[in-house]
Each structure stands twice: as structure tokens, then as C-alpha cells.
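Record now logged for everyone:
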Amino acid sequence: MRGALGGKIFGFWAPALLLSLALASPAAAEKRVALVIGNSAYQNVTRLDNPRSDAVLMAETLAGLGFTLIGGRAQLDLDKPAMDTAVQNFGRQVQGADVALFYYAGHGVQVSGSNYLVPVSANPTREADVDFQMVDVNLVLRQMQGSGTRLNMVILDACRNNPFGARGLRASDGGLAQMRAPEGTLISYATQPGNVAQDGSDGHSPYTKALASTIRQAGLDIFQTFNQVGLAVKRETGGSQQPWVSSSPIDGTFYFVAPAAAPASPQVAVTPPPEPNLASSLRPDPDRISIRDTVLLRELSDRLYEHNFDPEPLDSKNGMRLAISKFQEKSSMTPTGEATEGVLTRLRKLDDLKPWASIVYNPDGDKWGMSWNHTSRRAAVDDAQNSCGASKCPKELSFYGKRCGAFAISGKSWSLVQRETVDRAREAALDECGKTGKSCRVIGAVCADGSGR
């Protein structure tokens, strides 16, 4: 159970792969890039219940397997300019990568044999509109071609009923058209070409629910993975929906999670970050051994973030030093700020924090959002940010477990505060906001588990 609130401040309430390519003999970390998009809140056609939650689920699953995401999270409810920007950023970041993965959930249509992904702002009335208002899947494929990747994956949970069929877009057929997969590319459809997939009635589509579960299973190569997904969806839907895969020859054997025993012959495997390798390679004093590997550094940054220690971008002046120092102080370590094996090992041994809640605010645009009962900080922030629109909300208060937060505001000041109970959070937020002498009001308060609203 998850929830979110937010909107405009003044005017009361207004309804937020990294696939690791590793060689079988000494595995070297490779560059892996994924873009995850989920569109639900359509402005001119039927809204969809599940693509946003499907995209969040996929982003969280991929992140848990060591995937790096464009934008750091699922990209939700994008209009045409935002989708164009996301795809362009994806194309730039896959240059020189080993694996590129694109996932989309939302409306998708075929027009004159071509497949189009539908931004939330699309409102075509004739065939000539689609190139200007939608995103051709071939544009995504072209961003991958020539990038030097060993494997490209396009995953489309976008074969729902054509939302424009009754509005004059007669050239649009049901479902998506089959596409020819370029060299080194696998394209996975939620259902057979020309057929319609289900959106789902339990919070996720049958396809994405099966995919997120299956890619966590060790020892399945890429073709076994999608075969298992197809069988799971077929069983779930009583045979009415059968996923489809189009693939060109792919060099090597790829895994999302490698088998327990490495194959004897050289091959390429898709694996999560080498967590066991780090643990087994620790020297007598791991706190003195610096981490240089970029995949491990990304993992360290993500784990710090998920425990509410905010690192700066890796290429910034401080990077993770301040966040590591704060974590070391809390862990009764010498606050050196150094990224060491000891720091990462301690973070790995910590329990996952849950549930998470987040309150975000944009002082310039008077927008805010609030979410609760999420399994990770990143998911809570993403959900809260959905209320902020394209402008986003840079001010963030995230809290977990039994903590509660409150947001108070006046015409001249504001405050975001967390405390042990929602009543104490409300009182503290009013006190902090009222230091300017102006009367403040609490416009949002919640505990991480969703109580106290």
C-alpha cells in the first residue's frame, strides 16, 4: 500500500542493463545503462492505472541488481519534450557502454506499420500528427546503434488498446507491429504483435510483474529469462496474453544473475555487482583499502543515499566524502571520508530501511508533494516528485521506520521537520517556520507507514 499527496501550495490542496557484462575469467566491471519510462497520467485520453507503478518496480528491481538508470530513477509521466530529452540522454550515455536497456510502460500504438510510444501530452487527430506528438520506437533503436554496445534490449509493456481509435486516427491498428531487431538487439513485447496486453488489476501488469520476478533468478540466460516470463504471463492470463520476443543473433551468453558456478568456456554474463568477491577479497584491515572500481563506487553511493546519507555526484568536489564521514561518525569510526572496503562492507550488513516516506517542495514554483509506505527512499522521493510536475521539487525531507514528518508554510517562510510522532513533527514544523514572526500552517504531515495524515 503506497500513497501520495501534493500539488500547488497557495489555493489549498491540488490533486513525484545495468546489466553487468562480466567475462567468465576475472570479471571486469563494464559500463551498463538503462532508461525506464512509465506513463499513466494521460491528459487527453484514457489514463492507465499501472504503468507508473510498473516502471517504479522495474527501476527498483534493476537498481537492486546493480543497474544504473538514466536520471537515477524511473522517469514517470513524461510529455513529448521530456521523452525526447530522456531518449537523447540515453543515446549519449550508452556511447561506449557494454549493455543498453530501454523499458517503457504506457500507451503504445502502431500507425502505418510503425510503433509509437505515447507521451502523456499526446492529442493527435490525424495520422500526420503522430511524428510530432509521439516517439517512434525506431528512434530509440537508432540511439543504440553504433554505440559500441555488445547487447541492446528494448522492453515494451505498451500493447494496450489504441486510445485514439474513436477519435479519427483510423490508420492505427491494434497492438504493436513486429519490428526487425538490429544486430545484437533483443526486443520483448508484452504480447504478440497485433494483439492487446492487459494493464493488470492488482497494481502491476501481468508482464512487468513476471519480468521483475524472473530477472532476479540466478542461472537463466537471456533467452531462458524471456521464455520463463512468457510462460508466467500465459499462465496468469489463462492463455489470453502471450509475450513475444524478436532477436538478432547475440554474441555470447548473457545472464541477469550469473549461475553459481562460472562456465568453463569464456562467455559474457549479465550479473549484479560482485558483492561476494569484495567480501572474499578483504584484506586484514579493510578500512585502509580504498575502492577504485566504478561499479563498487556507484553501489557505495546508492547505499549511502538509501540510508539517508546524501552523497554529491561522484565527479563533484566532495563526491561521497561528506556522506561517508557522517556515516563513519554514526558507526563510531574515524570520520576520514575515504571510500574503503570497510565502509561498503558495513553498509551491506545493515538492514534495509522501510517503510519510507518523503515530503518535497519547490520554493520557487509553490509546488509540493508527499508520499509514504515505500520500500526504498528513492521510490518514496519519485512518488512525491510526481506532484511537482516538470519543475520538480529540490527541497526534500525523507524519513523511515517509525519516524514522522511535517511541512509548515507561511507567506515568508517554510519548514520541513521530522520527529518521533506526527504531533511532535507538526509542532516542531510550526515552531521552525514561525521564527520569522509570521503565522504558519501545516499543509502536510505523515508517518512513514502512512499513519497520522
